[in-house]
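Changelog excerpt

This revision adds worked examples to the README so contributors can see how folded entries look when concatenated. The first example is reproduced verbatim below.
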Amino acid sequence: MLTMFSISEIIALAVEIEKNAEETYRRAMDQSRNPEVKALLLWMANEEKDHATWFNTLKDEIDKHQDLPSDKTMEMDGDFIGDLMEKQSFFLGDTDLTIIKDKNKLNEIFIEFENDTILFYEMIKTFITHAPTIKHLEKIIEEENTHIKQLDKISHLD
């Protein structure tokens, strides 16, 4: 089923994804006993917070300026968005991290989340024509890839 979504609605979803990631990384940080892991998780949480702030600013700009090319309505498969929203990786806030005792399993969950986030942002990028917005979104995608590399480092720490 095709459903109409505004870029503003899609960006609001991106904000929620980033906030969810920030909260999850902070919870994991609170549960970790390893200072190096704590430091990396704090860094990642702050990165996600910065991303949410940028997406909020972008959404505000789109909402203010009807003439921005990014305010167009998109026709997307509603089932795709529904499936995306129901995926566990986008709802890490609902995951009980205390029951996951294996650090590598936790990293797998976080890496899956980061990869899904990158795919979502790549999808958003196909609908944006405003060059500065595309450039910044590409920077965020690059940062999400850096998060994956940092998570990989965590798996090698004691």
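The second example, added in the same revision:
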Amino acid sequence: MLKFKPFEASYNGRRRVPDDGWSEDFVKYSYNFTWEKKPEITDKGSRLVNGMLVVWRRIYGCRWKRYQRSHDDTTKWEFLWSLILFFTFSLLLVWFYFWWEAHNDYNEFNWFLYNRSGEWSDGTVPILATTAAGFTYIAFLMILALCHIAVGQQLNLHWLHKIGVSTALLTTAIGFISVNQTWGEEWAVIPISLQATGPFLHLGALVAVTALAWLVAGQVARTEKTRFQVVVLLLYLSVLLGLYMAPLSITSPCIMDHANLTPRPDVIGHQGAPMLAPENTILSFQRALQMNVSGLEADVAISLDGIPFLMRDRTLRRTTDVGKVFPSRQLDDASSFNWTDLHSLNAGQWFLKDDPFWTVQSMAQREVMLVGNQSVCSLEQLLRLATPHNHTVVFNLRRPPHGHPCYHSWINDTLEVIRLSGIPQHLVMWTPDWDRGQVRQVAPGLQQTSVEKLPPQVLHQQGISRLLLRYSQASPYDIREFSRSNVSVTLYTVNEPWLFSVLWCSGVSSVSSEAPNILKKVPYPIWLMSPDEYCLIWVAADLISFTVVIGIFVFQNYHIIRWRLSGMRSYNPEQIMLSAAVRRSSRDVNIMKEKLIFSGQPQYLSWWVVKEVSNGVGSAEDLYMENGFDYYNNEGICH
């Protein structure tokens, strides 16, 4: 290390030329230094910090030498890679958030993949695994980059990490394009989810940006380029001001007075309770009734002999053992089978094998046996199950293909089953849009329900009193408008508590869910806040953040402010060197020091220090007189 000897004057008129080609006349008066071995650090905190610095450099840039250009300014090329890293992190953050909130529709996504590939598998598992791995990796690099900035280290991303960042960026971009082309309607989950998470994400972002004030203040304190200081400050303050004003653009139906909260929406079991039993089976609907649902929803097809039965898919491959019983007909339309053949198929073993909702492992042995013995359910069985409990029944009726014996009579066949079941007509929501006039004549008590979003006036003209829409098709404003027009709205498919809470606060009358067992545990919205309470939290958070930011900037720049404003009257040699160093570019100083150290000639470090002092103040005599020392007798004249 560099150690000061007692301050003394000496004359040296010789000209020294070091081995590396530098030359400089020594000034008449200089400090005498000795080069000593750096003492071992005994402070545990210092050793920990130094060890962390070494680890950061080795992981981020594979730097193994302690002083290897560590304090140089970051090159433009590395600065560009830092921007690419930040952009990749932001893109992965959105991608991760999208799949986190899309959990409500994982089953829909898997069914979509099945229709395209013909094989059932949980396609969300590889997506979630790669997303989590990629996000963790990029977030780790971002943290290392911020640590480098915090301690003034040069950013130098290793080429292996550059390949990793490029791969993450490319695959994420491909993922965005693929989802946009094949499942574009799911993007609507992001603005809807922000109605539930927006206020909390705002507070989290405010905490993060407030913490970044430490890095920004450090950069402003260290840099000597005024333009760079202004750009950094303006950029940071713009982001901070935007966050302070962000609540003005946050809208959530859950920010409302508690007295205005509508009654809890009714829950309709979509395909029964498919998380607890095979979809569209009698056991699934029984489990749904145990979850206190208000209605049951099913998908209905017509058999070859005119019997309406429950089946979602066009074929029987996924939910029955048709490949084992009728191997040559497993790709045939489900409507091409008569009821006797359909009833002979097993509709439960597939559930135990595929475990679509990861619930089989939690089942008791008796429940597993019940699930494995399920068969295809008819519409009549469903109606007879719902009648004693006065539960609403909703079904989506699929028309048979051309050439089917019931191609023209499918509406009448279904109405006849409803009539014979004995269920009160007002408990049936009729969704098919064909021959509504004829349907009203035969069964005037049915609740005419539309699956198309139409203006309330048009719905009233067509005699429609209910809507069955996807949850993304109706905004809180739409729900309120339909409610004022006496049009009940049922939204599907609602499985997550946060989505149920948002729709509850929006005033929806009922929801269709594949998870009535989960929604049963939501007796009240997850969060509900009055506008005054939210305004108080908003203002308090902004004031606390502003105070912390000001405190950080003052603390980080305290020594510079004190040096510029205090006007020190007494200096020791160390203060003289600090004063001179402040006027000198830190980058030049570090480069000079590192050249001396790596050249193996530490004896010339005293010459370099004298050069720095003389270049900083003009001459040694000026330096002495300016700081209160006698140029000739080496005694302080100012105390």
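Reviewer comment on example two: The domain at 266-519 is CATH 3.20.20.190 (TIM Barrel). Confidence is low (pLDDT under 50) at residues 1-42, 568-586, 601-639.
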